[in-house]
Design a protein that fits this description.
By secondary structure, this protein is α/β, with parallel strands linked by helices. About 45% of the residues lie in helices and about 15% in strands. The relative contact order is 0.16. The structure holds phosphoric acid mono(formamide)ester and norvaline.
Length: about 300
């Protein structure tokens, strides 16, 4: 693993290596603090879109491990506008030991990785959100102890977060179901990739339009915003189509009694999730958000600690 930008390129072993490292560093932190394994190392954080969790958890993660992080706002760099993506990658590689980027286009993310001589970590692209998926599976492992026989159901848009959960579920042998409105399904080419991984791991993949059928018998119910960053002009159209896909108490009641409710956040409360489901006894939203820190420390430690 030189970069961490695309879940499709990661092996099942790579994913377990990250989850195990994250667990180890979380335990070490809970026991009194981490060893400064990234002492003197600097991470550049390039953002083309807003962020709370990604920005803060990467910054804090670097501090926990003895390093530092630099926040570079969308206006500052003008990635692909003021300066070409390959040039940004090559310039940053002369200053820092790692680059975390949040881009619109995944092509820009791939270009950063191609031209940087330091590791590049994907903090969200339109294609996938691999750090989110690592935090999510760390959370699922904590609440469910094992992934054996689990059914994870995503309800909503077949977007970057849904795609990430599908790829990781398929690779780790977790049964994955998604319920989307017609027209918002997962793209066939990505389903084909996941199906190949699922055939090897034994996971089942199910693509539905009915949310009640989808959540029935689920161990994990997951949702995300109906309109992702960059799609704002579609917001009105989406608001008309997505309400039957809201996670509310009634829908949660169709899942297993001990199912956990997840959301990558930020949430549009009252749209894709009600307050009652987000704050109810089955919600793990905030431990899930906290685990972004631990998951990413695992990734940083594996990619940037090359002593
Ligand atoms: N879930 C997530 O990536 O949150 P931010 O957009 O706040 O970073
Ligand atoms: N699907 C959302 C996730 C935000 C963390 C988006 O891309 O805006």
């Amino acid at each position: 693993m030189k970069h961490f930008i695309n879940l499709v390129d990661l092996s099942t072993d790579d994913i377990w290596t990250v989850l195990n490292k994250a667990t180890e560093l979380k335990k070490e932190w809970q026991a009194g603090g981490n060893k400064p394994i990234l002492k003197g190392k600097i991470l550049a954080m390039v953002f083309q879109k807003p962020s709370l969790r990604t920005r803060v958890s990467f910054d804090v993660g670097m501090l926990h491990l003895g390093g530092n992080a630099l926040y570079l706002s969308p206006a500052e760099i003008g990635l692909g506008g003021r300066e070409s993506v390959p040039d940004v990658a090559r310039v940053l590689s002369g200053y820092v030991d790692g680059i975390m980027a949040r881009t619109f286009s995944h092509t820009h993310m791939a270009q950063l990785a191609e031209y940087a001589s330091v590791p590049v970590i994907n903090g969200l692209s339109d294609f996938n959100h691999p750090c989110q998926a690592m935090g999510d599976f760390l959370t699922i492992l904590e609440y469910k102890e094992s992934l054996d026989g689990l059914k994870l159901t995503f309800v909503g848009d077949g977007n970057n977060v849904a795609r990430s959960l599908m790829f990781v579920s398929a690779k780790l042998g977790v049964d994955f179901t998604i319920a989307t409105p017609p027209g918002y399904e997962m793209e066939e080419k990505y389903v084909a990739i996941a199906q190949k991984a699922a055939a090897e791991s034994g996971a089942s993949l199910e693509f539905l339009n009915d949310p009640i059928t989808a959540v029935t018998n689920s161990d994990v119910i997951y949702t995300d915003v109906w309109t992702s960053m960059g799609q704002e002009e579609e917001s009105k159209k989406r608001l008309a189509v997505f309400p039957p896909y809201q996670i509310n108490d009634e829908l949660v009641a169709h899942a297993k009694a001990d199912a956990i409710v997840m959301h990558c956040l930020p949430a549009h409360r009252g749209e894709e999730i009600t307050d009652s489901a987000a704050d109810g006894p089955q919600s793990v939203l905030f431990p899930q958000a906290a685990n972004r820190l631990h998951a990413q420390k695992g990734i940083l430690a594996l990619l940037m600690n090359n002593e």
